[in-house]
Design brief:
It is built from one helix and three strands. A three-stranded antiparallel β-sheet has the order 2-1-3, with no helix packed on it.
Length: 98
């Protein structure tokens, strides 16, 4: 069953300068949540930005199938390589025995 995706999403971004206790300088970070300020990090909120992002039309079911096919192919390749290693080890042991 195909999940219906929205055509766009609205998001509020928080742009902040942050410095963790183990850092010497502030870094600029973009987060999708109000940034924390606690004993491990000093946070200076610089600005917020409301954005709208267009979501492309995608067949999620087909993307999932494609991902599973790639996973299956990797498993087959890995298994074949492992089988070859085992067969070589068996042959090596047989040579030592004779």
């Amino acid at each position: 069953m195909q999940t219906a995706l929205p055509t766009s999403i609205n998001k509020k971004l928080f742009i902040a300068a942050q410095k963790y206790t183990w850092e010497n300088e502030f870094s600029i970070r973009v987060m999708d949540y109000d940034p924390p300020d606690n004993e491990n990090v000093t946070t200076v909120l610089l600005t917020t930005l409301d954005i709208s992002i267009d979501i492309p039309s995608v067949n999620l079911t087909q993307c999932e199938i494609d991902g599973l096919e790639k996973m299956k192919s990797r498993i087959v390749t890995d298994s074949q390589m492992r089988i070859k290693e085992i067969e070589e080890k068996i042959q090596s042991l047989r040579c030592i025995e004779h």
